[in-house]
Design a protein that fits this description.
Helices cover 76% and strands 0% of the residues. The chain has five helices and no strands.
């Protein structure tokens, strides 16, 4: 079964590739250059993620199943971009910490503080875009859109589509309840 969210299958703890402690032995200029490069890289990836979010939100599928299939087709790209942005954000945080630790003047301390602020802004933007994509994915899976593409739809067809949507939502809810019960049982056995 596919995850309800394209973000639920990622483990953020495994993305850290280097720590600020190893960077603290580098010079101010090399750390500053590294931080600027990371910021530019994250900006590019965030723009890609934003374009993907916009494309997913404006996609017009004929049926709810088509919408889910369209989102499922993009899930690997979404997860990949998410991991790259998270990794970059972690590295930018590490670089900011390293800059703060080697800052020798008040101007350098101010620049290090600005990199920290930039990291926080980028993290907020990332969370906003990630939540938007996550919401779209969950909405498509749990509450499929019904569009009247035919002007001659009769009541019975509408009721059948509604029933199908309700059955899908109920099965998803049952799946989540099952997962929660399994988690509760596992925690109780610890």
């Amino acid at each position: 079964a596919l995850p309800i969210s394209p973000f639920s299958s990622c483990a953020p703890g495994r993305l850290r590739s280097f720590s600020w402690q190893s960077m603290s032995t580098q010079s101010w200029e090399s750390l500053k250059g590294k931080a600027k490069g990371l910021k530019a890289e994250i900006d590019t990836k965030m723009q890609d993620l934003g374009r993907l979010n916009k494309r997913l939100s404006t996609a017009s599928a004929a049926t709810p199943a088509d919408r889910v299939a369209e989102l499922d087709g993009q899930i690997q790209l979404v997860v990949s971009l998410r991991e790259e942005v998270e990794r970059g954000l972690q590295q930018l945080e590490d670089a900011s910490e390293a800059l703060a630790s080697v800052a020798a003047t008040s101007a350098q301390a101010a620049q290090a503080a600005r990199f920290r602020e930039t990291h926080q802004e980028m993290l907020r933007d990332f969370k906003r875009v990630a939540q938007s994509i996550d919401h779209q994915y969950q909405h498509a899976r749990l509450l499929p859109r019904t569009r009247a593409n035919k002007s001659g739809d009769d009541g019975e067809d509408g009721l059948m589509r509604e029933r199908m949507g309700l059955n899908t939502s109920l099965s998803m809810a049952d799946e989540i309840i099952g997962q929660a019960s399994a988690t509760r049982d596992m925690l109780m056995n610890q």
